[in-house]
Amino acid sequence: MDMAIIKDIIQETRNVRRFIIEDPLKDKIIYEPGQLINLYLNTPMDSKPHVRSYSVASAPDDTNEFEIIVTDQPGGLMSDFLFNQVDIGSEVGYKGPMGVFTLPETIDRDLYFVCTGSGISPFRSMVNHILKHNIESKNINLVFGCRTKEDLLYFDELKELEKINPNFNYHIALSRVDEEGFHNGYVHDIYLPLIKDLKDKPLFYLCGWRNMILDAKDNLSELGYKMVKDIKIEVYN
User: Which residues neighbour 69 within 8 Å (Cβ) at sequence distance 6 or greater?
Assistant: First the structure.
């Protein structure tokens, strides 16, 4: 386990914070977009540290920093620790980054990043990495679902990326409100019509709430999409 320092804390929405984390003992942290880190918390009740995984939300930038986003979960040991017990300068234990929820070596078909809540984290990393380095790709569709406009994460940043990159499309579904300029409903209502008449299957990445992922897997399986080959998943409980 390595030790890092909370360098900055940003209140993104009413119950989500961005944590900028720095490892002062490293010149740079090497990782692939989409990977995750494990944070460790020692509690008096446990004989071993409590562990929680978070997808890295920042794109690799050859520094010794990375960013995660955390939702305040009532009763959650790690979220309580991060929201109520740490401050800028606090130390945290971590391992990683690690994981295989990553981009293919060659992006030879359209990408669909479908997510809910903090499941947007790995896709923010992937989109910024692809666009920043002008990596050859086809169309990139980010489909993000949350409850209300106030729950949107990285909204201004992603809208700006969409504006300056013609092959990047940012779609938003709000499930609890009917807001002008946004789709009222769920992520499935957005991606299913878009892929209905496609000749070539795009590659789907699913990340976020378990029920969304199960429904998306069922929807795509009925259309002939196969796990691993056509669908990659990262489940958040």
Answer: 12, 16, 17, 18, 19, 54, 57, 118, 120, 121, 153
pLDDT of residue 45: 56
Quote the tokens at residue 130: 């692809």
The tokens for 195 are: 């892929």
Nearest to 57 by CA among 135, 166, 157, 137: 157
- Proportion of the chain above pLDDT 70, given as a percent: 97
DSSP codes, 100-165? S----SS--S-EEEEEEGGGGHHHHHHHHHHHHTT---S-EEEEEEESSGGG-SSHHHHHHHHHH-
Range with the poorest average pLDDT among 29-33, 35-39, 167-171, 174-178: 174-178
d(CA 101, CA 112): 14
The predicted pLDDT at position 58 comes to 98
